[in-house]
Amino acid sequence: MEYVLELKNIYKSFPGVKVLEDVTLQVRPGEVHALMGENGAGKSTLMKILMGIYKADQGSIFLEGEETVIHGPKDAMSKGISMIHQELNTVLDMEVAENVFVGRELLKKGMEKLKIVDIARMREETGRYFREMNIDIDPRAKMRTLSVAEMQLVEIVKAISLNSKIIVMDEPTSAITEKEAAVLFTQIERLKKQGVAIIYISHKMDEIFRISDTITVLRDGQWIGTKPAKELDNDMLIKMMVGRELTDIYPKDLVEIGDVILEVKNLSRGKKVQDASFSLRKGEVLGIAGLVGAGRSELVETIFGLYPKTGGQIFLHGKEVHIKNSADAIKNKMALITEDRKQTGLNLIVSVKENIASVSIGKLSTHGIVNDKKINEVSEKYIKELKIKTPDGNAIVGNLSGGNQQKVVLAKWLLDEPDIIIFDEPTRGIDIGAKRDIYLLINNLAKEGKAVIVISSEMAEVMGICDRILVMAEGRINGEVRREEFSQEVIMGYASNITGGKQE
């Protein structure tokens, strides 16, 4: 048996959109097969066909040489296929252990007929998986108390615990830092040795070349090529993906940095943020780095008023402000692009133009009546400026690719003309072309005199686009690194609490 999985001549269309056209994917047992392409290339649709979420219009699926039909995710699971989804599929009001075993709950021995769930055994098994993968999460914690990164780790553990023959990993490291990713890569090596086939989707080039044996590229729903990873390099792969060369991935112009616009003094939020002090200037791009649980998102959420501070002060233009909620932050010309666009950034069931207008609806109304003409005008402006791939402003935002959804979130906030823009994982799960568009946008915002904060788990990204980086560890700002001093070793030293522990 040469291939454990073959998807042959797959076609799929949605109303008005051809998504896949004659795509074939062949995967060997014990290999990491990277599936690459820009957002909208058809990668996720192809995997949803494999999982039985969508039915192909044409084409066949073969498992271990036998043609099969997959009737849904549960059927896929029974056939030895599991998937770590890019968009988290967690049940927020259930325990971590219950999420790991959802749909396959362990029953109390001797009481199987009564269907009594053995929660203690599920917690014990989950704890064992966590210890094996060096993950520090309480199996009894409610999912909603976890960060996005911790939820992603739970999803990874859930997929690995299924003992599948084929595991699809769709952007598994999009919300976790390099330290957590290294733990995943160790598990991938272990799975390979056991003969498990892994289909790996990621926009992080360094990961792809680090772990992949084979790479298949899709572009605009069509198969472009399949090659051994060792026969490709960054430039060749980008050219296959986008159809052209893409130079200067991290565009960074020299920008005149102006006066201090934001000053944070001794800000605290319980143990999550402790005694944080820093300043931010006009035209500056300030990075915030750190490991999962370091308090990066919690710091900016506190500044933005999503959670009450327990101590400290916030100053804008030299005057103390009291930001009690997000409405106060918006009035003070601040914007927060959150790390989870699906849950907190967008209303997925309404149109692109309605999402773009949502923060600035007051400006787009006349005497309390929404002005549709204005909404159409501004949405078309931002669709064009940000290169949002959508049929028009009336398209439902949930039908767009991840990168284009992220651009809609950006448009929503830019329309409000903020002075301070906070990006929390701005390129999570989006392709190299869309990433560069967002880097260019950040660059242009700095040129316009906006003050920008960027939280990122990608070291290359935060070093590529920022003027200065604050590094957090255990709720504290542990160090500050200026652009001329940037190095992964210095940043990881502060992040791991190796380099001291005091704020500079």
TrEMBL record:
Q: Which Pfam families does the annotation name?
A: ABC_tran (PF00005)
Q: Which residues form the ABC transporter domain?
A: 5-245, 255-499
| Protein's cellular compartments | Cell inner membrane; Cell membrane
Main subcellular localisation: membrane
Reactions that this protein is recorded to catalyse = D-galactose(out) + ATP + H2O = D-galactose(in) + ADP + phosphate + H(+)
UniProt key word Cell wall biogenesis/degradation: no
Going by the UniProt record, its keywords in alphabetical order are:
ATP-binding, Cell membrane, Hydrolase, Membrane, Nucleotide-binding, Repeat, Sugar transport, Translocase, Transport
Name the InterPro entries for this protein.
AAA+_ATPase, ABC_carbohydrate_import_ATPase, ABC_transporter-like_ATP-bd, ABC_transporter-like_CS, P-loop_NTPase
Q: Which GO terms describe its cellular component?
A: plasma membrane
Q: Which domain of life is it from?
A: Bacteria
One example GO MF annotation = ATP hydrolysis activity
**Topology with respect to the bilayer:** Peripheral membrane protein
By sequence similarity, the record places it as follows: Belongs to the ABC transporter superfamily.
Function of the molecule: Part of an ABC transporter complex involved in carbohydrate import. Could be involved in ribose, galactose and/or methyl galactoside import. Responsible for energy coupling to the transport system.
The name on file for this protein is Ribose/galactose/methyl galactoside import ATP-binding protein
Q: Which species expresses this protein natively?
A: Blautia luti
Gene symbol here is: mglA_1
